[in-house]
Design brief:
The complex is a heterodimer of chains A (624) and B (227). Chain A has 21 helices and 19 strands. Chain A is an alpha/beta fold and 624 residues long. The chains are: A alpha/beta (624), B alpha+beta (227).
């Protein structure tokens, strides 16, 4: 690829210029003569982050396999690059052809975390595209967005023309082809709105009660659905998965082969959005997985393979698959990485084999410090599970244990926090018991993140702790965790509160995001860039209060902003689960029997799984 | 086990990848090409391959070498064809041949100098006699500049005069072309950046570094060793 002099000069001045040059192995080049629709796939963060995200590779692959469609990548330039681009008047461009993004037909943003939202506005602006939908005429691309944060699209309703909610494998190529058939933006949006998974904010008006809660949604276009049903693919096994992954030149966060083994989760943790919105479980068959692995390794030359799902060992044929992949990898000098394993004896056998003498840390996520609170959040792990796994791990030579907890959970008391310290102490003691008084280089890392209530979960009505309460809890934990061999990390309180506003925000929160961006906020997920005082100013100026959006418990009568999206899980299920949480009752893993979330009215659960093993695995999970 | 060497050039946007990036890319290319490399022994085995000399980020190059060791014997042409077929745009493979059997050191240990071409747009500035400029520059008693030290933050003053083997300047149109033969390798190493940084003020030129392009034309091995 030949680039112009201006860009060449710019690249000589910036850090890691290879972020901006494209041309990587397996990136797609198309003859523009054969292209009817040009799609920009934008990841609102830096190249190294975006290229580690498998969803990008999945959709890039599917769109580029669609005849007449060309999908090109766009990332947020680092601040040094942005400054020079703005000074030189260079507009944001795609990596495949260096085309200005405003020349795309569709520009799609993936919404992975709330703290990337200001980057979306900034990228539009860098692309010389008006940030607000209302200011964009026919000459600009249709701006679309999808991904987990699209399940509460309202905070971005002013900026995005159309949201895609749910699985994108079938939906995205479908709308790309529709674009070629439509002569105006309005016609395109109207035709898309008839599809499951498409939400067009401009087809609805929202009115509010005096107390600030939502009064009603008024449809402005008759054929728009009352609620937008999320798009669901029935069979993951039949869904296209990339085998010619783009191989970045530069080091990225995850630089490896990845195969998604299954989508969805059966556990039903009440705080977890992913566990709800990716339902039901759909598995890819072992033969398909092995085939993809083989091709990916051959086409990329990667020396690491990882499996992608919400919990690796919940795959119904996990043991057979793990053994076979281990064999394949060993033969080719490829490292196998199996994240989020349930630590039973089989997992230890596998981990010991694949990690050899270079053992990484072992991670547990009890999430809460007492059985009482773990029952409230429906996190099915007992302290006995952890301790017996830790014992085995220490005997096999592991020296680092990581523990993940949340604080600020509904119903939490200081006894639960005390429990966190107790677990850390017990693990240190186990090490002393096994390895003697000195205990070697053993370390326990305790990471505590602040609970952020999320849309479409049983805790969607819950109040978030105020910063002073969280700070007190952090101080308490710092004090209690001051032990030899223990490291304690916790998250910034202000960021968690801000996340909470946006995660459960309505359209008015969009004004706050807009103002924050105007004031200079961007890359908010990066601690070194996050500017809390500017966000405070944006909140004050636009009237978005933490009291209303973060600290307030909602009532069941309230119309919640994200209920314009139908996740295909019934509201009654969320209410029931929330009530059971209050009563401290657990709900069993749905492999042991349907728990009635409503999903199976739309899609078959456990498609592609070996159903004869579900009960057995369900029982193992439940008994530890 | 058999050792081979391949020659290649690097031009266009791919010159914005670093030495380590290209190293990693070659490692993957060999895997994709189905050419099993020999691995080093030990806890952290690495494939046996390496470049004669690292190339700075942003530089183009016309004659670079990569040496590597395969697990079995190959027809060098087969190696060349396989690698060429899947190589990223901008890296042009020239040929592959067995490494000279009499060589027992790595190519990087044998490297002693390299020839660079530096193109400086003059943007209307003039240089009356380019070669005289080169000679006057070299006629200085010392050529002192600041050099970053390995693993340290402070910069250290160095005299680079003795590391410059030859300078030929010429001007055509609006461009000053500086050809320079510089020490390279483990015993004495001079980056063209330091020459650029000292020549420009010496000549009274104020062209911005971002407008200047650098190409490495040739790597020279000790005593003219044939690889």
């Amino acid at each position: 690829m030949v680039i112009d002099k201006q860009l060449d000069k710019i690249l000589k001045k910036v850090e890691k210029p290879a972020r901006y040059i494209g041309g990587e192995v397996n990136s797609v080049k198309k003859d523009l003569k054969d292209v009817k629709v040009r799609v920009g796939f934008a990841f609102p963060d830096m190249y190294e982050i975006g290229m580690s995200y498998m969803g990008l590779q999945i959709l890039y692959n599917i769109l580029n396999k669609t005849e007449g469609v060309y999908c090109e990548r766009v990332f947020a330039p680092a601040t040094d690059m942005e400054d020079i681009m703005r000074a030189e008047g260079r507009e944001l461009f795609t990596l495949e052809t260096f085309t200005p993004v405003k020349e795309m037909d569709i520009l799609g943003f993936t919404l992975q975390y709330e703290m990337s939202f200001t980057n979306i506005l900034n990228m539009l602006d860098l692309g010389a595209i008006p940030v607000k939908s209302a200011d964009r005429g026919e000459e600009y691309p249709v701006i679309v967005a999808g991904g987990p944060c699209a399940y509460n699209p309202e905070p971005l309703a002013h900026f995005i023309d159309m949201f895609m909610v749910g699985d994108g494998e079938e939906l995205f190529p479908q709308i790309a082809l529709l674009k070629a058939e439509c002569s105006t933006k309005q016609e395109f949006l109207q035709r898309c709105a008839e599809l499951d998974g498409i939400y067009v904010p401009s087809f609805y008006d929202v009115t509010y009660n005096e107390d600030g809660t939502i009064k009603e949604y008024v449809k402005l276009y008759d054929k728009a659905p009352d609620r937008v049903k999320r798009a669901v693919i029935q069979s993951l096994d039949d869904a296209e998965f990339p085998t010619e992954n783009i191989v970045p030149f530069i080091d990225t966060v995850h630089d490896r082969c990845v195969v998604e083994t299954f989508r969805g989760c059966t556990r039903g943790c009440r705080f977890c959005q992913a566990g709800m919105i990716y339902r039901p479980v759909r598995e890819r068959k072992p033969e398909t997985i092995k085939g993809i692995v083989k091709e990916q390794l051959a086409n990329t030359g990667h020396d690491e393979l990882s499996l992608l799902s919400l919990s690796t060992s919940d795959y119904s044929r996990f043991e057979d698959l793990a053994m076979e992949l281990m064999g394949m990898c060993k033969a080719q000098n490829v490292a196998l990485s199996l994240p989020s394993l349930r630590l039973d004896s089989f997992s230890f056998k596998v981990l010991d084999e694949i990690q050899g003498y270079r053992k990484s840390g072992l991670t547990f996520a009890p999430e809460a410090g007492s059985q009482r609170l773990r029952d409230i959040i429906n996190k099915n792990i007992t302290e006995e599970n952890i301790y017996s796994a830790v014992e085995q791990a220490i005997e096999l030579g592991w020296e680092t244990i990581k523990l993940y907890f949340m604080d600020g959970l509904p119903g939490e008391t200081y006894e639960d926090l005390e429990g966190i310290a107790q677990i850390a102490k017990n693990i240190i003691d186990i090490n002393f018991k096994i390895r003697g008084r000195k205990g070697g280089r053993f370390r326990v890392t305790v990471s505590v993140s602040n609970f952020v209530p999320k849309a479409h979960t049983p805790f969607q009505w819950a109040a978030q702790d105020r910063p002073e309460v969280l700070k007190e809890k952090h101080n308490f934990l710092s004090e209690r965790l001051r032990m030899k061999g223990v490291t304690f990390n916790y998250h910034e309180t202000a960021t968690s509160n801000l996340e909470a506003i946006i995660a459960r925000g309505d359209r008015r929160v969009g004004d706050m995001i807009y103002r924050a961006w105007q004031l200079g906020c961007k890359f908010d997920a990066w601690t070194e860039h996050h500017k809390n005082e500017l966000w405070q100013q944006a909140m004050e100026e636009t009237g978005a209060t933490l009291d209303f959006y973060a600290y307030r418990e909602r009532s069941y009568d309230e119309i919640l902003p994200w209920e314009i999206i139908d996740p295909r899980i019934e509201r009654s299920f969320f209410e029931r689960e929330n009530e059971k949480a209050k009563a401290g009752e657990t709900t069993h893993d749905c492999r042991l029997g349907c728990v009635g979330c409503g999903m199976n009215k739309h899609v078959k659960c456990f498609h592609g799984a070996d159903e004869s093993r579900l009960q057995k695995i369900g029982k193992e999970v439940s008994s530890g | 086990m058999a050792k081979y060497v391949m020659e290649f050039s690097k031009t266009g946007t791919i010159c914005y990848t670093s030495h380590l990036d290209v190293m990693r890319m070659f490692k993957r290319i060999f895997k994709r090409a189905g050419i099993p490399l020999a691995y080093s022994q030990g806890f952290n085995p690495h494939p046996k391959m390496g470049f004669a000399q690292p190339l700075s980020l942003g530089y183009e190059a016309t004659e670079e070498y990569i040496e590597f060791e395969t697990q079995t014997d190959w027809d060098p042409n087969e190696l060349y064809e396989r690698v060429k077929a899947i190589m990223a745009d901008g890296i042009d493979m020239k040929y592959c041949k067995p490494l000279n059997e009499n060589i027992h050191k790595s190519l990087s240990a044998l490297t002693e100098a390299a020839l660079y071409t530096v193109s400086v747009p003059l943007n209307g500035q003039t240089v009356d006699d380019p070669q005289k400029l080169a000679d006057d520059y070299l006629a200085q008693e010392k050529i002192i500049t600041l050099k970053k030290q390995k693993k340290k933050k402070e910069q250290k003053e160095v005299d680079i005069k003795g590391m410059i083997r030859r300078l030929n300047f010429s001007a055509k149109g609006d461009t000053l072309t500086m050809r320079m033969l510089l020490d390279q390798g483990s015993t004495s190493n001079l980056s063209p950046e330091l020459v650029i940084a000292t020549v420009l003020p010496f000549a009274g030129l104020d062209t911005d570094r971002s407008e200047i392009s650098v190409t490495r034309d040739k790597i020279i091995f000790v005593d003219g060793v044939e690889i």
